Amino acid sequence: MIFIGNRYEITDRPVYIEENKLYNAYDSEKKVNVKIKIIENNRYISLDFIPNLIDESMIISELMNPYILNIVDVGVHRTTDNLLYYIVYENFNGVSLSTLNKGAYLHLEALIRIATQTVKALSAYKKIGKNHGSLKPEDILVDEKYNIKIADFGITEANKGTNIRCSGNLKYLSPSQLSVDFTDIKTDLYSLGVILYESVFKKFPFSEANTEKQLIRAINRGIIWTNVNTSDKNQEFVEIIKKLLERNDKICYKNYDEVLMSLSNFMYKTSKITKIDEESEKKPQLESILDKTGRIDPQDFYKTNQMFLKDIQVEVNRNKKNNNSSAKPVKKNKSNKAIIIIFLIVIIIGVVATSLL
User: Fold this and answer.
1) 251-286 as b/e, with b when 16 or more CB fall inside 10 Å?
2) Which of 77, 232, 233, 344 is placed for a possible disulfide with 84 were both Cys, Cβ 3.0 to 4.6 Å?
3) Taking a C-beta distance cutoff of 8 angstroms, is the pair 61, 114 a contact?
């Protein structure tokens, strides 16, 4: 068992602890599940980081934002070799966006929902004059309904606006952070653009880099968008990503309201497509309902492989009605034939009787 601060047991049972990664843990004092993150002290972290972070955690808690993961405890953990900081968060049943990105492609509705909630969280924090400054997919937790909670709010602010340069942060640092350690709204917009690019295309937008200088050179070279595969469905969403990554002040987003407006417009345009897709998912496969119809014309089979059950029932009822209506004349015809036969028999009997007389 791995205990942090003689109180928090990491329940994920890792072979070793990775820095700057959220783990599931158990608070042995309050007897509740929590999330915990370990950060190793480095030259970028200020001496008053912990007391500042305590203050930030109280500010974040007062925001009561549904998309922000609240900090419930911070502390120092000493080992024989290192000085470690730990940050304890409220529990949230979800997996990280980075984990989701390793799986199947996320559909657009999910991406829009995740992006919108992220922007709302960043916007709420910006309204009190603060920036996240260390946004990355590892800290965006997503549940099965695509509700999210974001960790690391307050960490960069507690470090006086300078990113603490922990493992995993490098590739999501903005050009201003890499160049002059400056954090502002464009920092978070840029990071969001990188995260959404990865979620859509399953790859980092720039060439791989091992140092900050290599990364800034890769960013300066830019993205060759002509080499990026897009479709008619995600083209407008890709345009939003482009604008998030844009460094030209005249073209890029200026505030979070603009981003939300773009996402809302895109969501509105795709809502009809989404409804059609949802209805299509509810349609039963034709093979599964053949027993209800008895047979089907081969030509119809190749025209479509899906039908609504209600349409099938209407067709069955219509066929029954046609069969019943067609059956009545048949009975009438049989009756007429019988009368004719009887009439003929009567005539024959009459003729025979007359001849006998």
Assistant:
1) ebbeebeebbebbeebbeebeeeeeeeeeeeeeeeb
2) 77
3) no
| In contact, 140 and 97? CB cutoff 8 Å | yes
Which residues, in sequence order, are CB contacts of 50 under 8 Å at separation 6+?
74, 75, 76, 85, 158
> Which sign does the torsion angle of CA 131, 137, 138, 144 carry?
positive
Q: How is 58-89 classified by DSSP, letter by letter?
A: HHHHHH--TTBPPEEEEEEEE-SS-EEEEEEE
pLDDT digits (tens, 9 = 90+) for 115-161: 999 999 999 999 999 999 999 999 999 999 999 999 999 999 999 99
Dmax over CA atoms of the chain, in Å, equals: 141
CA-to-CA separations, 263 to 39, 56, 184, in angstroms, rounded: 34, 29, 22
Q: pLDDT tens, 196-226?
A: 999 999 999 998 888 999 999 999 999 988 8
3-state secondary structure of 296: coil
Give the separation between CA 254 and CA 68, rounded to whole angstroms. 22
223, exposed or middle or buried, with CB in 10 Å at 0-12, 13-18, 19+?
middle
CA dihedral over 23, 66, 183, 129, signed as positive or negative: negative
Instruction: Write down the residue that tokens 């979620």 correspond to.
Output: 199
Q: Which residues pair with 75 in a beta bridge?
A: 86
Q: Is residue 193 within 8 Å of residue 239, measured between CB atoms?
A: no
Contact 171, 191 (CB under 8 A): no
* CATH numeric code, 3-277: 1.10.510.10
- Name which of 237, 311, 231 is nearest 279 in CA terms: 311
Q: For residue 159, what are the contacts with CB-CB under 8 A and spacing of at least 6?
A: 44, 45, 46, 49, 52
User: DSSP assignment, residue 168?
Assistant: T
Return the structure tokens found at 329.
Answer: 């004349």
